[in-house]
Amino acid sequence: xxxxxxxxxxxxxxxxxxxxxxxxxxxxxxxxxxxxxxxxxxxxxxxxxxxxxxxxxxxxxxxxxxxxxxxxxxxxxxxxxxxxxxxxxxxxxxxxxxxxxxxxxxxxxxxxxxxxxxxxxxxxxxxxxxxxxxxxxxxxxxxxxxxxxxxxxxxxxxxxxxxxxxxxxxxxxxxxxxxxxxxxxxxxxxxxxxxxxxxxxxxxxxxxxxxxxxxxxxxxxxxxxxxxxxxxxxxxxxxxxxxxxxxxxxxxxxxxxxxxxxxxxxxxxxxxxxxxxxxxxxxxxxxxxxxxxxxxxxxxxxxxxxxxxxxxxxxxxxxxxxxxxxxxxxxxxxxxxxxxxxxxxxxxxxxxxxxxxxxxxxxxxxxxxxxxxxxxxxxxxxxxxxxxxxxxxxxxxxxxxxxxxxxxxxxxxxxxxxxxxxxxxxxxxxxxxxxxxxxxxxxxxxxxxxxxxxxxxxxxxxxxxxxxxxxxxxxxxxxxxxxxxxxxxxxxxxxxxxxxxxxxxxxxxxxxxxxxxxxxxxxxxxxxxxxxxxxxxxxxxxxxxxxxxxxxxxxxxxxxxxxxxxxxxxxxxxxxxxxxxxxxxxxxx
Length: 589
Ligand code: GDP
What we know:
This protein is an alpha+beta fold. The chain binds guanosine-5'-diphosphate (GDP).
């Protein structure tokens, strides 16, 4: 090649089209080169620096990172609260501790089976007959070393903890069924783990099945920037069969290897802190809680404060239900003696006396009251203010779109916008409506949700309201990019004001071949206008938000209709109308 080692600067990620332009090659040629390297990508897709560096090398270029390496960024990135709390510990007192692992993955890919398989392969964990109680966590031994597993699988638990500033897990095992490959919740899990900056070990499960296709799954993982180690990437992918209990030791060894390359340490003699894994009220025993000790050594008789609950621990049991006197870092324990049921994800700490505990709890209760009054969501409008105040350096986004065909160009456009002073970080991009998990991820990562031609589920809206998450829905790409661009430049215009035009009650629903389902309504207030915006409420919840696309009065199309009259109303791409729904018509000024 004639470019013999010519240096080119490349960003952390780049769209294929742009990369082709930089090296002055045809994008098709580039895509072919990528394919021979095992990477499937379309012209609009983004590849990371490492991948880009490999292909440009094939043309004789040497890629140079024009960005600050990830590690440097991690310093300013999200630091889990408990890590901040042990930041004051003398480094020389820090000792290696067992890694804490959680299992994520798509439904039915084998999370529960894998947790059971891991638990039963280890004699230290499984009591004969498997009568061990489940306390939400357990430990296994591998090569004389312990590994702690959080055994409530699922993204909700993981994100809920993170939303509270806790970070239970040091490592995520991502279960991917080899017969099914990467599925929506797999992608979601990857987004959660990446947002939390927790390393991923992939358990490629169900390899025993005749229709297992490990290579296809690996290809899909590679497309998600999890390039398998045997393909020269950095992600450990271990083939397992949870039901046949195959590959479990390899998986655990993999976990230990990843643990070794991450600084998993604590001071057993330091300040005692940790995270509440689960807690419940037992009628006869009072509050039962599972605690994960993260620093220091917890002892029976210690006074603990967790969130707004406190108490002197009467007894400490290990995960097998055996009473123990002490529990060091990364040990899960079941305790009794708290005054109240703390929330999963609350941090706990040991204090000197119950009196001190009471003072702390009273302060916290007061703070909660104040917070509730001033709770404000991070909206696009607030972003620039935060940037100026030096509080935000990047805008986190979660992008949902109706079809892949619109998602790809949106991501491309957004990535372009993120090349300026304020970075733009897309945590998760996926097709489908906005659901609870998106809101949870947004809340935990202080992200804004962008929806393109999609709706937010009723539950998700309610949660967004509670968690203070900004959801912005768009139908036109440039409107969206315009908004984001303005926010990034601090030029977002004053918030638009909504003006209610009128209200109507849905009396009956009928089908019209031309419009789909039509709501037969009576206008109870003001007027309805064709082309205006509408919101449909059912028992107080918003079930639809969009355009009032058709308006008829006695078979005639009308532009508007006033209070007291009956009319037929059709909504753009929405059919789930029910008698009793209320309709509010408004315009945005
Ligand atoms: P979860 O929803 O991710 O917790 O998945 P489960 O552990 O409940 O597993 C879902 C189904 O897949 C169950 O019927 C399991 O028996 C089956 N399964 C799990 N692991 C394996 C495996 O390694 N091989 C086979 N053949 N089936 C498995």
